From TrEMBL:
It is found in: Mitochondrion matrix. It comes from Chanos chanos (Milkfish). Its cofactor is FAD. Residues 60-262 form the Deoxynucleoside kinase domain. It comes from the Eukaryota. Accessory subunit of the mitochondrial membrane respiratory chain NADH dehydrogenase (Complex I), that is believed not to be involved in catalysis. Complex I functions in the transfer of electrons from NADH to the respiratory chain. The immediate electron acceptor for the enzyme is believed to be ubiquinone. Its main location: mitochondrion. It holds the Pfam family dNK. InterPro entries: Deoxyribonucleoside_kinase, DNK_dom, NDUFA10, P-loop_NTPase. This is NADH dehydrogenase [ubiquinone] 1 alpha subcomplex subunit 10, mitochondrial.
Length: 355
């Protein structure tokens, strides 16, 4: 599968027992260069999660249609509540995770293009579904970072859109004929076996902006590829949110909904959050033991990415063994993967060659 190349580029996890070499309290691991690891020995020696929690130790997801003001609300609310703000990831989120000095080639970043999707959503090369599946992976990896940050530091996280709401875009793409039913079946299988390993946000805040207004804001953005986003597509996203996602997520998490004018009143939103009791959802059933296992999962990014690797033959995106092998060697040929940090390729210091 084309997206199986993610196994090559996502940071691999170290065995749990490695933590015995350097047991750290509240150590955050989000990349291959981090030496602060949490593991079995950390837990055995007394590392616990719940003592770090306070009233704002929550994960909050801000959802809504394109250009609905999610980012502005998320940033202001995070500043107000003293929480970490995580902006919506793009197709190059892996570059941030791996801390590459040079961005990975597009072929190693999902081989998809957001611009192409908006310009040619029905492209025969499978770009639309590659984009959808790749962005689900990026959001899943970011969500694992959010949970890891929460469990490691106790600080709450506010992020723009979680992987739980990605289905609304899949539904809209299928309704508009951008992807085939076979792609929907594959995506649903991927999501069903991956999202169940995580805990949903404590709170989802939905920002409602009519599709007609969304289209006007996209045109006003000045970005060429957003000038002709079809109104039926935007309406499909809005419908999927209101009829599918919001009723479903309200059973697992707290839910607040505002129109764009109300969402600008951060004081009111913060006050509404304070009134919530957060008595629903699986978070109420967790303890230090379950947090331990969840933390072991979310710090292992390759394990997280592997959850989305489901073999499935889809002609427009499936690659053969030779192409997969070429992708592997192209990735391994990057200097950042061949040499240790600080290696001077011009001088040729072989002493710090990475074995």
């Amino acid at each position: 599968m084309a997206f199986r190349v993610i196994r090559l580029v996502v940071p691999s996890g170290t065995a749990a027992f490695k933590a015995c070499r350097s047991v750290q309290t509240a150590g955050i691991h989000t990349s291959t260069v981090s030496n602060l690891r949490y593991g079995w020995w950390s837990y055995a020696l007394g590392e616990r999660t719940t003592p770090r929690f306070n009233e704002y130790s929550k994960i909050i997801s801000i959802d809504g249609n394109l250009a609905s003001g999610k980012g502005a609300l998320a940033q202001k609310l995070a500043d107000k509540l003293g929480m970490l703000y995580m902006p919506e990831p793009d197709t190059y989120y892996l570059n941030q995770m791996t801390q590459n000095k040079l961005p990975l080639d597009k072929a190693l970043n999902g081989n998809c293009s957001l611009e192409k999707f908006y310009m040619d959503p029905k492209a025969a090369d499978g770009n639309s579904y590659r984009l959808q599946s790749w962005m689900y992976l990026m959001r899943l990896l970011q969500y694992s970072d959010a949970i890891e940050h929460l469990l490691t530091t106790g600080q709450g996280v506010i992020l723009e859109r979680s992987p739980y709401s990605d289905t609304v875009f899949l539904e809209a793409m299928f309704k508009q004929g951008y992807i085939r039913k076979q792609c929907v079946e594959h995506y649903n299988e991927i999501k069903s076996i991956s999202i169940c390993e995580f805990l949903p946000p404590h709170l989802v805040i939905y920002v409602d902006l009519p599709a007609e207004e969304v289209q006007k804001k996209l045109k006003a953005s000045g970005k060429p590829y957003l000038q002709n986003v079809p109104l039926p597509y935007l309406k499909s996203i809005e419908t999927a949110y209101k009829k599918s996602f919001l009723p479903h997520i309200s059973e697992q998490a707290e839910l607040l909904a505002y129109d764009t004018t109300q969402a600008q009143d951060v004081e009111r939103v913060a006050e509404d959050i304070e009134y919530l009791k957060f008595e629903k959802g699986p978070w109420t059933e967790q303890d230090d033991v379950t947090y331990h296992y969840l933390r072991m999962l979310v710090e292992d990014k390759q394990r997280v990415a592997s959850l989305t690797c489901v073999p499935y033959f889809i002609p427009e995106i499936t690659v053969g063994a030779h192409e997969f092998d070429e992708s592997y060697h192209a990735f391994r040929s990057n200097p950042g993967k061949m040499y240790a940090e600080g290696y001077n390729a011009d001088v040729g210091d072989k002493n710090i060659w990475l074995k």
